Amino acid sequence: MELTLATGIMVAVTGSIFTMVNPTQGAFRVQPEVADMQQRLRVGVDMLHKDLVMAGAGTYSGAAVGALSNFFAPVLPYRTGLVNSDPAAGVYYRPDAISMTYVPNTASQTTISSPMPNTSAEIKVNALPGCPSNDPLCGFKTGQSILIFDTSGASDTFTITNVQSNALHLQHKGQQLSKAYGTDTFIAQAETHTYYHNSTTAQLFHYDGASSDLPLVDNVVGLTFRYFGTQQPPTAPKPAIGTANCLYDIGGNTLLPTLPGGDGSLVELTQTLLTDGPWCGTTNQFDADLYRIRKIRVDLRVQVGAEDLRGTDPLFFRRPGRASEGTRMVPDFELSFEVTPRNMNLMR
Questions:
Q1: DSSP labels for 56-112?
Q2: In a domain, 200, yes or no
Q3: How many domains does the chain have?
Q4: For the chain: N or C, fewer Cβ within 10 A?
């Protein structure tokens, strides 16, 4: 009898101990995963924020000083580039993708010295003040990504494949140029960055517009970009009277309406507004309302990698798992942040 009672007491105490230890084991399993999710979220936010802040930065020497938004739309709500370009498939808006262009800190910013046909693979440049001394190519080198643009809203990006004497041999990101560019068209080294969500692999990807298309963050289950812009029609680029573009008619009258009021001085630019025209550019077309963009909101959501740490409630788990105990569940993390690209707000 005494042995039976002692055994029962021992079993009860042991069971209580294991009951107390089990949540602790769950915490030891969960906490490293939580830290990993926070780190992945931090990496994604840092990468996106860094390039969004720089979006639209233009040349700072020569005749085209100022933001790129004075010439063309530097932020596009879709993937662009040499491979799998969305416009090539007729797609001009994706809530989970963004492309942006800016001129980095570089001496390579000048104008072309001779006309460039739209099928040209060679270009010559002027050695203007600001270019490196004794360098007829103004610092351009093999492998650089460069941008050519003018006041008509046309722009094209290239990769320099070869440099000979005073001529650059170029690889164009597309079948041909948007137009035949004339003498003194602006040219500069540039960076193009595309971020998009691959829902199949649950990853945040970065694409440089050429050949580098790599995942940045794993277990990303949500990525959304929202755009906010001015109510008033954009004022640049404005052609001379007698010449029309996507913003103005030949009489200098604006073609875009004033938008209804929104939050403060900015209104949300919806998918409908950004895909209804008028269209700017020729080969590389974009909606004229993209000139309005002044602020971008990003919603980024990540999940825990282990399926046995995800529950079944769709409110907390975008991709449900098989966890049943609350102490062993790690809900998705979601972070929203807004960026006002400084270069696209210079005219405000």
A1: T--BSSSTTBS-GGGTS-SEESS--SSSS-TGGGT----TTEEEEEE--S-S-EEEB
A2: no
A3: 1
A4: N
The dihedrals phi and psi of 32, each to the nearest 5 degrees, come to -60, -35
Torsion, Cα of 150, 152, 153, 159 (10° steps): -30
d(C-alpha 53, C-alpha 5), whole Å: 72
DSSP for 3-58, written as a single string: HHHHHHHHHHHHHHHHHHHHHHHHHHHHHHHHHHHHHHHHHHHHHHHHHHHHTT--
Which residues are CB-neighbours of 110 under 8 A, at least 6 positions away?
Answer: 62, 125, 126, 127, 128, 130, 131, 138, 186, 187, 188
- Say which residues have a Cβ less than 8 Å from residue 125's Cβ, sequence separation at least 6: 110, 111, 112, 113, 136, 137, 138, 140, 166, 168, 187
pTM here is: 0.88
pLDDT at 348: 40
Tokens of 232: 């008033």
Residues 152/60, Cβ–Cβ less than 8 Å: no
Domain ranges, residue 346: 27-68+212-348
Strand pairing report for 191-198 and 155-164: unpaired
Do the domain assignments include residue 332? yes
Pick from 89-103, 197-211, 321-335: least confident: 321-335
41, 134, 180 from 137: Cα distances, Å: 42, 9, 21
Residue type, 30: V
Whether 282 is covered by a domain: the verdict is yes
99 lies in a domain? no
CA distances from 153 to 73, 150, 288, 291 (A): 8, 6, 10, 10
Dist CA 186 CA 100 (whole Å): 18
End-to-end CA distance of the chain: 89
Confidence check: pLDDT of 202 > 50: yes
How confident is residue 309, by pLDDT bands cut at 50, 70 and 90?
Answer: very high
